[in-house]
Design a protein that fits this description.
84 residues; alpha+beta; 3 helices
Length: 84
């Protein structure tokens, strides 16, 4: 079995998991005091904020880009989903 370094694994990972979303939620809470809600649906999930927050949106977009994920944001800036 080939051992894959963490950075290589991140580049090949296609999915953003519920555990990843929970980790992002903890970071947002600790750094910005913003609550991220995770909504689990059949085979997928999305995340929401209570209210639009420009700081949180900038952070989430940068976080997703750094992790190699494509983020879809609703026009109001409070609902997010991640594409593989």
């Amino acid at each position: 079995m080939k051992t894959i370094k963490t950075t290589e694994r991140r580049q090949t990972m296609a999915n953003f998991t519920l555990l990843d979303a929970a980790a992002l939620g903890r970071i947002l809470k600790d750094r910005l005091g913003v609550e991220l809600h995770i909504h689990d649906t059949c085979g997928d999930f999305f995340m929401t904020l209570d209210a639009p927050d420009d700081r949180a949106l900038v952070f989430i977009k940068a976080y997703m880009a750094r992790e190699g994920h494509t983020l879809t944001v609703d026009p109001g800036g409070t609902s997010f989903s991640v594409k593989a």
